[in-house]
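Thread: "does anyone have the structure for this chain?"

Original post by V.I.:
We have the sequence but no experimental structure in hand. Need at least a predicted one for the grant figures.
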Amino acid sequence: MKSNSKFFKNKKLLPVDEFFQNVLYDREIGYYSKKHPFGKKGDFITAPKISNLFSEMIAIWIISAWQNLGKPKHLNIIELGPGDGTLTKILLEVFKKFPDFNSAKKIYLYEISNFLKKVQKKKIQDSCVKWIKNFKYINDGPVIFFGNEFFDAMPIKQFKYEKSIFLEKNFQINKKRKIETVFKNASKIDIKNIKSYSCLNKLKFIEFPKYGLVQLKKIVKKILKLKGCLLLIDYGYVKPSNKNTLQSIMKHKYNYLLNNLGHADITSHVNFELLKEFFLKNNLKVKKIVSQQKFLKNMGILNRADIISKKMKFRDQSNMYLRLKRLLSSKLMGELFKVTLAYKAKSNKFFGFN
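Reply from O.Q.:
Generated one for you, tokens below.
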């Protein structure tokens, strides 16, 4: 347990979000700074690794969004947290089949982990792709931001509300050098922010993505200035239910949250209703929140599967449909993952949300 004190950065007490920010993103000891977390040999697997059809549907959606934006001659596409680069690699393959769109697009990968950037660069070798750590170099538009399992990796704050008092959850190292939970009075600014969201009213246990909303604010500013949209696909819920959703995964199995710090992934479920409120507060329009199952079916993933299955051997067909089941089944990712779209555009005819 002594080694875990390094995540406190010489502080005795840290709020949940600051602590996990250090655990996940510290440049020297953070989880994402030293480990390849994706795939069978990693700790978890994401939709692009499960089936290429997922990435194909995202590619088609981006092209359709470009059409909805009036087929501009220049378009910036920004993937948020590009993982191991699998999704973008498939996007590039699909985009080449649409010459007008392909000549208009520029692709930026927003990645803060130098380790993962190296992983991505091995997979993606295309001069039209650039890596960025902020959005200041994107000064023309429109823009299409998208993120798959991006927001659930953002550290969150946790509070409880009892006897008319907001208390924030913190971690500290005790005298026995073990990590323990301590609740302290919440700051006035955090209380004000929480109270400003109607979906958080009347909750006794509150998860608030303060850090994530700061990141989203930067994206929103770009969309408001340059026009465009943000597509987010993530593990989450629409109605909050007083639950602690922080979870840790290691080698594809649940791990006790405070064990294996820096060696296991830590995520939380995304409150999509809160995101909707946030976007509306910041003058973006929002499409109806839908499940991943509905979004992918609306985009024609089953039709695409039927077409390519005709050229497959039976074993390959079975494998493809087994992977599709994982993406679409209500008991697996189909309903657990939600999709939201925030946008500034003249037309609201974005596919996938009917």
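V.I.: this helps a lot. The chain has one domain: 2-343.
O.Q.: and The chain has a mean pLDDT of 91.
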